[in-house]
User: Fold these one by one.
Assistant:
Number 1:
Amino acid sequence: MRIAVDLSRAEWIKSSYSDGNGGECVEFTPGIAPTAGVVTVRDSKHPADPALLFPMEAWTSFTTAVRGGEFPAL
C-alpha cells in the first residue's frame, strides 16, 4: 500500500532519545500522524533523504517491542 503525505511544511521534532554526538538522530512529525494515520520518521543528519512512513499500528507494535526488550542491544 502506498500513502501520499505532503511533508513539505512539516515540523520535525528530534527524539529525546537522540544523542547530541552525531549518533542515532531520529526526528518525527507529531502533527502528521493524527491526520494521515501514519508515523513519519527521518534521520536528522540527512534531512533531505526520504522519510519513512509507518502505519500507526505497526509503529505502536514496534515501539512496544523495543520497550519490552524484544530486540538485542547493539
Number 2:
Amino acid sequence: MNLLFKALHDPTRRAILELLREGPLTAGDIAEQFHLSKPTISHHLDLLRQAELVTSHKQGLYITYSLTTTVLDDLLSWLLQFKS
C-alpha cells in the first residue's frame, strides 16, 4: 500500500490518472499533455504501474496505458473501516 500512497502523492501522476479515466492512451499521447520530458513521464508511468494503478501493453512500437481501479477498491475498503 506504500507504493499506492507514493503514486497518489504526486500531482503529475494524479493528472495522468485523470487522463486515463477517458480511456487508454499511449505513452506519447500522455507525454503531449505535459511540459515534461518523455523520460520523466515514463518514470511517472512506471511508478503508477508498480502501484497497480495502471496496466500497460505493447502494441508494435507503442506502449498503451489503461487505468486499473481494483487497487482503489481495496484502498476504499481499507479506509472505510475507520469510518465507524
Number 3:
Amino acid sequence: MLSDGIISLRALEPIDVDTLYHWENDPGLWSAGVTLAPYSQKQLWDYVNNYDGDIFSAKQLRLMIDLHPDCDNPDSRVTIGTLDLFDFDAANSRCGVGILIAAPYQRQGYGLRALELTSRYCREVYSLHQLHSIVSADNTASRGLFEKAGYSISGRLRSWLRLANRYTDAYFYQKFLQ
C-alpha cells in the first residue's frame, strides 16, 4: 500500500463496486473521461472481479484513494477518489495518468498528494521516465492540480474533446521523473 500518512493508494477491491457505480454513472463527470453511457452494477462487478492489476500485461492500473484511517478505528477508511494509470508503455518508459477526487474532498490537497505518491511509485517501482495527461482547456481546477504536481504543458490539442454539443481544446501535460 502506498501512503503518505494522510492518504493511501490501494488496489481495487470488490467493496469498491458501489463507489465506482456512483462515480461512473454521474453524467457531470463524463466530460473528464471517456464515458458516454452509464454502467450497470453487474458490469462493474465483472470489471472488479476480473481486474488484472499487472500493469505490464493489462497496460493499466486503477488505484483507489483513501483517507488514512483513524489509528483507533481501522474501519474508518473513507474512499475519496480513484487514480488511473493507462497506456503503460514499458518500451518508452511512460504512462498516462487520470485522477478523480469526489466533490466533498476536492480543493483540500488530496489530489496533489495522490499525484505525488503516484510519481514516486512510478519512478521507484516501474522506473518510468515520464507521466502524461490530457486535460480540457476549460478544466482550470484540474490544470492547476497537474501544474502544482510538477506537470508542464507540452502541447495544445485543438478541438480535442467534445463537451455536449461543442468541442474544446485540451492541453497535453508531461512530468519527467528521471
